[in-house]
Design goal:
Order of helices and strands: HHHEEHHHHHH
Shape: flat
Strand content: under 5%
Protein name: Energy-coupling factor transporter transmembrane protein EcfT
Keywords: Cell membrane, Membrane, Transmembrane, Transmembrane helix
Number of domains: 2
Number of strands: 2
Helix content: over 70%
Main location: membrane
Strand order of the largest sheet: 1-2
Distance between the termini: 48 Å
Number of helices: 9
Structural class: mainly alpha
Largest sheet: 2 strands, antiparallel
Subcellular location: Membrane
Radius of gyration: 22 Å
Membrane topology: Multi-pass membrane protein
Length: 248
Amino acid sequence: MRLHPLTSLAAAGSAAVITTAAASWPLSVTVIAAAAGLSVAGGVARRMLPAVAVILVPVVLSLLALHGLFFPEGTTVLAQWGPARVTVEGLHFALERAAQLSAAVLVLLLCSFTISIPDLVAALSSRGVHARFAFVLASTLTLLPAISSRVGRIRQAQEARGLVIRPGIIGRAGAFRWQAVPLVLSLVEEAGTRAAALQARGFGSTGHRTSYRAVQDSPVQRWVRLVLVVAAVAAIAARLWQPTAGAS
């Protein structure tokens, strides 16, 4: 059974919310493993990897630097340089937060790389969502996949013209400065082209709209979406209630 785009969106959002609210190391690792396995099974792992690296590598390094070196509650000191102290508690806290954030980022990226954008826009429009808002939401979900694909095409064109890119992350990062300008210019040009195309298709009109694309839904998936939303709300409520319960 093919997943409805709103079901995929609800599953990703609920998984991110529940993982963040639970703040549980085993749950975060489980979600990371599940997202990685689904990305491999869906054939999007190679395309997701650059986006994952761009988002998570600087964030994880900053968490390790901040909490690993300057964790005030740390008592078990592994090394010290003046006011900076590497503590077991700080490293544990940093790794726990890194896993928690990585799980949320991975499930959201997996959704953005696998969801069918035409189906999502049609599903939102059929439920009364304004066409412009539906398109903005869909474009936001596909922003990273579009940038990743565009960078790949720019790199291939530059390599065909003689640019030598050393293998590895450092080599690609060094070559990105040559790709940044054409990437930004192409995205700006595409934005203008899309705006003209949307205007020509009447996205700014306020009348009743119809769609040639019909997205099949089922009662089971509607119930699943409801359960996912309720679970996410319950996780947030439990997280907010926990400090109060502990204080009393």
